Hints:
By secondary structure, this protein is an alpha/beta fold. The protein is built from 17 helices and 17 strands.
Amino acid sequence: MDYLPVFLKIEGRPCLVVGGGQVAARKIELLRKAGGVIKLVAPELCDELSVLVRDGAVTHIARNFSEGDIAGNNLVIAATDNEEVNGRISRLAREHCIPVNVVDNPDLCSFIMPSIIDRSPVQIAVSTGGKSPVLARLLRSRLESYIPAAYGRLADLVDSSRNQVKQRIRDSKTKLIFWEKVLQGRVAELVFAGKEEAAKTALQKEIDAITTDDTARSGEVYLVGAGPGDPDLITFRALRLMQQSDVVVYDRLVAPQILDLVRRDAEKIYVGKARAKHTLTQENINQLLVRLAKEGKRVLRLKGGDPFIFGRGGEEIETLTEEQIPFQVVPGITAASGCASYAGIPLTHRDYAQACIFVTGHLKDGSVDLDWEMLARPGQTVVFYMGLHGIDQISRELIAHGIPKETPSALIQQGTTFNQRVFVASLDRLPEMVRKEDIKPPTIIIVGNVVSLHSKLKWFEPEYGGMSGKWEISEYSD
Ligand code: SAH
């Protein structure tokens, strides 16, 4: 380890900055965030610093650095463009045993400034030991995107209950397990969802339960949209919940590559879903979710695409509500938008379509009984989910109700995956295309003039390999 990482308390303490340019301004910004009392020595100031001085945020001494400036400070930063001056500041500070940083000159520094992820009171500092500040910044931005902004609020919440928990749990191992559960469970999720009051109540409930019967703890259900197939398209929240669930309930529309992201030791329950070949009925699935949650488990109900778009998410949470099981719904990218993007077909376009309709080509009794007149209106894009089985009727009825038979239409099979296949044909020739190309589910059908843009805008060709592997698939989600 080249450096010892520490977090320095400078609140209310004097800090010296030498130099009046942008570089000094950046450092001062940080020192101010940490509450430092800043003395700035420089003959001239850039505009940004002048404003700070005018507002009384820093004390300015308008002259060159002199030896007497050093003593009495908790921290010194040299940000002049004069190497000799910087060197002198560094030497003097060391003589006084004051931590010193000389900007862009690690050799003269007794400490270096990390890249910071600030979720106060949670702070993460990244350093490459001064070797590559750019790399540190890149790492920082990666971490930024993994760590929800609400972590700071979570830490505050925990802090407010720490004493209470300390009094109830003496054993440190038990205490650790308690906090681990809180920080990965419902309380944390409520904070991330911005529901601070509910989080407080939930935390209090967890604390109250410490001395009562722990087995009475209720679990919860996460109804999570896994997107259309490409694992890159799941949300950060989905990923987090996937990694903290005790059991996952999934069906065929969820690609195996996505299942791989679920916590390794989570129990996996397949509830199938194929047309007229249900492994479990919807009612049974609803009951299963309730039972698992009542056993105190964190249940991940993983759905293809978005749970609220032809995903029967509404029915599942209705049962959960009746049974008073806590749940949350995490949206996913629905097949229509995922497939359309990857096929270069904008679903709306000022010249072609001012509206877009998502419609199911499959009704409960197996028929396709739709409002054809409405679907056949001009100036819109119609996306059929689960439409393969009824493709003959869809093509026939749309034409019979006034859509020109030449209207460009697309079939997108296993969209967003590396097995994606895209076929474009006129509306009247769609059924023929399905048979000729042996199109299999899952496939969406896009009908509308926007499809003509496919040849111009496509960028993702299925033959460019990538997400491979067998994906046993079904057209139907009910
Ligand atoms: N909740 C899902 C839809 C479930 S209905 C969502 O929001 O996407 C199942 C239908 O979705 C399939 O029959 C198919 O029409 C469509 N579908 C789902 N994933 C798909 C994919 N990767 N490629 C093409 N169509 C897909």
